[in-house]
């Protein structure tokens, strides 16, 4: 039995059927004590009622829905009680919650039941009857998400022709409030209920619209309400005519936030992504959004909805494609920013190179001048030695002994050298694999464990322009060898990516694991 319909401690004077506890009596009891219903209680109460009413309307039954016509069935599940709802309500609190067309004397329809359910949800959350121009629930009760306001504003549209009529869709929308409180209602084809809503006709008014019109700026497509009559609507903010692009930015941001709230309200791990012919998941919607934002999954990856047994590419999905598109924009912006920074670095490097060339040129001139001076001095010393030798020979005939001078050795430049060491950074893939081939059959990493840590951000941060293939051999949690190939060939990028991969840590294993990652820029 639903906790909200547990037996009352005393007789229920407000009920219209002996021994039956109605939702009206429970609301009045809560109002007297000031205890509002939690979202989980509202969902557990309203979702079964939606399912029950959908079947009754389909059978052509005349249904006057209000809080006094809802009670606990034999199984304890809240549902509509025909004996209490076969005539128009008389209780003022119930009359306040029926659709305007019922008040005017019309017969009930699925649209009038949608209105009554919206009124019941509003009263359970706020303990206040609905009235024209009333405040949204989130403005009265702390902690109620804005998506609740949006769904109720659609259900409480006073114009019969504008109001949604699909009770199954309403059940699904309400279930998102607290998906763990009760089993989800049956799935429906969301394309079966196309409704164009004018929320100015709702009991919960829209925010004030901007009076002056502004030029339309380029923007991403809005979420189509034709797919879900209870989808989040977008508030139109007052914008300045001096900045027409602000309107587009605000609307896009609001649309994505609203869509994100709706997706995250479903915690079921229903999404599987097929990437590189491998299944990843299943993911809940919030987990999938995080994977898209981190560039793990992109537009071209295939998305499988296990609940509806449908397959489509992420770029073709009506919801997740929006976030993938913005992730692409962000990647392009990052790439453009890095390109600008790289260009600035090249300009600085070019300036520094010119300065170095100038210094080298000056040094070369000085070196040449020094060599010329040394050569001139050496020639002068040789001439002086020859002159002294001639003077000594001329003195021998006069009995003097001239000391023979040894020729001084000519100045020379000594030589020698050695071989330089190899390049730093570690072995390449093939060398590492050959050196550890005896360990290849020991405990190794799975393909996902091996490849996933090599994030796509490495290629972007190294300035890749084209394609790159990374082959890595791993042992004991570290890279034994890395080989990077780029097309077109970019040696600097090869070295940068290889260095980044060598800095990654993996799960430590005894054997040698190998994997290949491919990167591609647009």
Can you characterise this structure?
The chain is α+β, with helices and mostly antiparallel strands. The protein has 3 domains: 3-201, Transferase(Phosphotransferase) domain 1 (Transferase(Phosphotransferase), domain 1), CATH 1.10.510; 268-346; 429-520, TolA/TonB C-terminal domain, CATH 3.30.2420. Helix content is 42%, strand content 10%. It contains 16 helices and 9 strands. It has helices at 23-33, 39-58, 82-85, 92-95, 100-103, 110-126, 137-140, 146-155, 167-175, 244-264, 285-293, 320-395, 429-435, 447-451, 457-461, 491-502, and strands at 70-72, 78-80, 271-275, 278-283, 302-305, 310-313, 467-475, 478-487, 513-520. The strands form 3 sheets. Strands 4-3-5-6 form a 4-stranded antiparallel β-sheet. A 3-stranded antiparallel β-sheet has the order 8-7-9. Strands 1-2 form a two-stranded antiparallel sheet. β7 (467-475) and β8 (478-487) form a beta hairpin. The longest helix has 76 residues, at 320-395. The radius of gyration is 41 Å and the shape is elongated.
């Amino acid at each position: 039995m639903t906790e909200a319909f547990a037996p009352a401690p005393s007789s229920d004077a407000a009920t219209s059927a002996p021994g039956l506890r109605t939702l009206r009596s429970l609301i009045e009891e809560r109002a007297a004590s000031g205890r509002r219903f939690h979202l989980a209680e509202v969902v557990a109460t309203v979702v079964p009622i939606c399912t029950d009413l959908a079947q009754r309307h389909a059978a052509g039954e005349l249904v006057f829905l209000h809080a006094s016509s809802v009670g606990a069935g034999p199984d304890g599940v809240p549902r509509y009680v025909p004996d209490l709802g076969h005539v128009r309500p008389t209780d003022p609190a119930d009359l306040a919650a029926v659709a305007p067309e019922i008040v005017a004397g019309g017969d009930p329809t699925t649209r009038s039941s949608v209105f009554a359910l919206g009124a019941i949800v509003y009263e359970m959350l706020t303990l206040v009857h609905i009235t024209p121009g009333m405040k949204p629930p989130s403005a009265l009760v702390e902690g109620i998400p804005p998506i609740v306001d949006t769904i109720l504003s659609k259900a409480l549209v006073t114009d019969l022709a504008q109001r949604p009529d699909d009770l199954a869709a309403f059940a699904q929308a309400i279930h998102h409030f607290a998906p763990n409180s009760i089993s989800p209602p049956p799935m429906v084809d969301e394309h079966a209920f196309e409704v164009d809503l004018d929320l100015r006709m709702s009991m919960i008014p829209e925010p004030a619209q901007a009076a002056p019109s502004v030029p339309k700026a380029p923007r991403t497509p809005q979420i189509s309400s034709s797919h879900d009559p209870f989808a989040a609507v977008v508030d139109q903010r007052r914008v300045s005519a001096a900045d027409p692009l602000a309107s587009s930015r605000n609307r896009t941001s609001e649309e994505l936030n609203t869509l994100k709230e709706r997706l995250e309200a479903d915690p079921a791990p229903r999404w599987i992504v097929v990437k590189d012919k491998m299944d990843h998941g299943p993911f809940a919607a919030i987990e999938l959004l995080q994977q898209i934002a981190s560039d793990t999954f992109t537009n071209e990856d295939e998305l499988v909805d296990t609940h509806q047994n449908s397959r489509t590419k992420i770029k073709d999905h009506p919801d997740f494609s929006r976030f993938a598109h913005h992730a692409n924009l962000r990647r392009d912006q990052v790439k453009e920013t890095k390109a600008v920074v790289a260009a600035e670095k090249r300009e600085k490097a070019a300036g520094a190179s010119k300065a170095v060339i100038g210094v080298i040129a000056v040094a070369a001139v000085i070196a040449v001048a020094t060599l010329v001076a040394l050569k001139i001095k050496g020639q002068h010393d040789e001439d002086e030695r020859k002159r002294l030798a001639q003077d000594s020979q001329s003195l021998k005939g006069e009995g003097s002994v001239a000391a023979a001078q040894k020729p001084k050795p000519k100045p020379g430049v000594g030589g020698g050298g050695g071989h330089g060491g190899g390049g730093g950074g570690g072995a390449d893939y093939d060398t590492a694999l050959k050196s550890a081939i005896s360990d290849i059959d020991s405990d190794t990493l799975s393909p996902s464990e091996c490849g996933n840590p090599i994030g796509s951000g490495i290629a972007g941060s190294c300035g890749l322009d084209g394609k790159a293939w990374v082959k890595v051999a791993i042992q004991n949690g570290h890279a034994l060898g890395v080989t990077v190939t780029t097309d077109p060939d970019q040696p600097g990028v090869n070295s940068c990516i290889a260095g980044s991969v060598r800095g990654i840590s993996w799960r430590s294993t005894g054997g040698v694991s190998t994997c290949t990652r491919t990167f591609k820029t647009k």
